[in-house]
Amino acid sequence: MTRITTIERFILDSQPEYAQGDFSGLLYDLALAAKIISHKVNRAGLLDIIGEAGEINVQGEDQQKLDVYADDVIFKMCDHTGRLCILASEEHEDLLEIPARYEKGPYVLVYDPLDGSSNIDVNVSIGTVFGIYRCLDWSKRGRKEDVLQPGRDLVAAGYILYGSSTMMVYSTGRGVHGFTLNPDIGEFLLSNEDMKLGPSPGYYSMNAAYYDRWPRPVKEYVQWLQGGEDSGAPKLSSRYIGSLVADFHRNLLKGGVFCYPSEIDKPLGKIRLLYEAAPLAFLIEQAGGYASDGTQSILDIMPTDTHQRVPFYIGNRSLVEKAEEFIQQANRLPIRE
Ligand code: FDP
Question: For ligand 1, atom 17, which residue shows the shortest CA distance?
Answer without folding.
Answer: 242
